[in-house]
Specification:
The structure is a homodimer. Chain A is of the alpha/beta class. Chain A folds into 3 domains: about 45 residues, lambda repressor-like DNA-binding domains (434 Repressor (Amino-terminal Domain), Orthogonal Bundle); about 140 residues, Response regulator (Rossmann fold), CATH 3.40.50.2300; about 130 residues, Response regulator (Rossmann fold). The first copy, chain A, is about 50% helix and about 20% strand. At the A-B interface, helix 4, helix 9 and helix 14 of A face helix 4, helix 9 and helix 14 of B. The first copy, chain A, binds a DNA duplex through helix 2 and helix 4. Chains A, B: One of its GO terms (molecular function) is DNA-binding transcription factor activity. Chains A, B: Pfam families: LacI, Peripla_BP_4. Chains A, B: This is LacI family DNA-binding transcriptional regulator.
DNA sequence: CTGTTAGCGCATTCAA
DNA sequence: TTGAATGCGCTAACAG
């Protein structure tokens, strides 16, 4: 049988309360007795039953998700997943709240994070804007003992506990490999549409893309990135102009959102069926475009997985418990029209 | 606060024991009181705390994994994942045992399954061989009240509760889409290497592959599938002969195991760098081949995810609990050399 | 600094 | 057919 607190109390020759104090690193235990208890724990191979502990504590994990009030499909989807998690809250012993902040606004994000410090949630997940002030605010939360998980866009220089998102450098490289093979072997140009190069995930995708293109597909010229602010109208205007201006564009990498604009531009482009397209995020728009052959491949991050992972990680960190690395790795999903879920 | 059994006992005007009888559908309750309790349950929106219930019951879930004693990397990997789950058993309240059976042997599998009926495990997971006898044996288990999950290879005509594996038709289609774009636009031939067309997953992959090839890439001729029995030596011999015989092979789809043999044949092929290759399962062999450019893409199913999913599903079925569909969908992972994990 | 005791939400004897 | 009482493994007052 699995050893219980009673067993280690007996072996260590102390009471349950003392065992509990040692297990939960609470003060008021002499070094000698602590040692005895710890010895018993390790010789018996005791691992505490988290479910029972939570039951006894009546523990709930108050978690806060800080999300940008962006209205693109992906962010909506992410929020919907958080709301589903809220629906499961009673079962999972979580109490999740959502805080919305203006998109691409570091100051607002910082204010939101600082406001959380007093609420003392058991964990915070946020879609990071890449700015030094945000790093500092995240570090203040961690300093205050609140685990922080970055979601979708990382903040690697901060002290965040974990990143629940894809490897964006690899995503960019993958896009380049696909596009490089989809377009022909004759020299031509590749257009790139980003949202904003102020967010880290977009910058990283571009970097990975350019690296592989330069190395493996030197006959292809990667044009300067168009910054469409993830706004369909802007994307349509800028990309449309570029497609009109140059006749040698054989491929497009859309690494941000606003794909409705991309499709509009594409539909009125002269050589549209000879243009290979790789985009990000599987939404209603991109799925349909895949289906009719306007987009050739979509790189996707599973918002549901990211949210569930963030919750698992925050709970584990709050308990100081280990996690299963394999389960928390967020994959770069590649969808062609043939493997749509 | 979330309602507890006490609350519904109070509202229904009965004792805890009666509530428990109703909740667990045990006999010895009059229709009238049962109705009262059920009314209280639904008006209060009671959902029972599985963790507390398991604590009280001291419940463990005895689960059995029936795995083929195949020695290819993928099956080894799968078994390793089950062993990792065994290591987590105390925490997850599972007691997992592994039963090994000879590969591709329906009779042996049937005997193993029938032997389980008396052990009455809380659930069984198996890698199915596609044969009517196996279907019948699975149905006998289900009939006996034991939930069954098929792993990797499905048995859709059986009464299995769930399939933890990828959509193999979609995988084949995806392979065709990739290969069709990787090879040029000139007419040429595509070689196909299968393990055995007696297993359903291989058959389905081939079917999906052929369908897309015929529809979207009519200039490519798909050759008859080589059946390599997932054996490197056999694969090397048969594929090598085919590569020698025909000079017009521009691509290979390896939909089974035994990729060491494929690589050996490829290395001594005359036009090896003009042959595009799509294979299945990310192993040491295929990963290395991706890296050096001998293989262009690998379709993978995450063995760890499959095992964890099977366990979650079996536990949920044993409790009659619902599951999160999104979490249990096994993805077709597509790896290029750029997004290796 | 240490121990006693009650109770978290549920299941299960054992009586009535 | 029903109910009272006890315990699962752990935590947290409250005493000493």
């Amino acid at each position: 049988m699995k050893p219980t607190v009673h067993d280690i109390a007996a072996v260590a020759g102390v009471s349950l309360a003392t065992v509990d104090r040692v297990l939960n690193r609470r003060p008021g235990v002499s070094a000698r007795t602590r040692d005895k208890v710890e010895a018993a724990v390790s010789t018996l191979g005791f691992v505490r039953d988290v479910a029972a502990a939570n039951l006894a504590k009546g523990r709930v994990y108050p978690l806060t998700f800080v999300l940008p009030a962006n209205d693109n499909s992906f962010m909506r989807d992410l929020e919907a997943e958080v709301r589903e998690a809220i629906a499961r809250a009673p079962v999972e012993r979580t109490a999740i709240s959502i805080v919305k902040v203006p998109p691409f606004d570091a100051d607002a994000l910082v204010r939101a994070l600082d406001a959380l410090i007093d609420e003392k949630p058991a964990g915070v997940a946020l879609v990071a804007v890449d700015a030094p002030d945000v790093v500092a605010a995240v570090d203040r939360l961690v300093e205050a003992g609140i685990p922080v998980v970055t979601l979708v866009s990382d903040l690697p220089t901060s002290r965040r506990s974990h990143f629940a998102g894809i490897d964006n450098l690899a995503a960019g490289r993958t896009a380049a490999s696909l596009l490089g093979r989809f377009v022909g072997r004759e020299p031509s140009s590749i257009a790139v549409v980003a949202g904003s190069l102020l967010v880290r995930d977009h910058r990283e995708r571009l970097e990975g893309f350019r690296a592989v293109m330069a190395k493996d597909y030197p006959h292809l010229t990667v044009l300067d990135a168009i910054e469409g602010r993830d706004d369909p109208a802007v994307v349509e205007r800028l990309l449309g102009a570029e497609l009109d201006r140059r006749g040698d564009i054989s491929g497009i990498y859309s690494l941000g959102a606003g794909n409705r604009g991309l499709l509009a531009a594409l539909r009125s482009a002269p050589r549209r069926d000879r243009i290979a397209v790789v985009a990000h995020e599987l939404t209603g728009t991109t799925r349909e475009a895949l289906d009719v052959g306007l987009i050739d491949a979509v790189l996707n991050q599973d918002a549901g997985h990211e949210v569930r992972s963030a919750i698992r990680v925050l709970k584990a960190k709050a308990d100081g418990a280990p996690l299963l690395a394999g389960q928390e790795r967020i994959r770069i999903d590649i969808f062609l029209k043939d493997n749509l879920p």
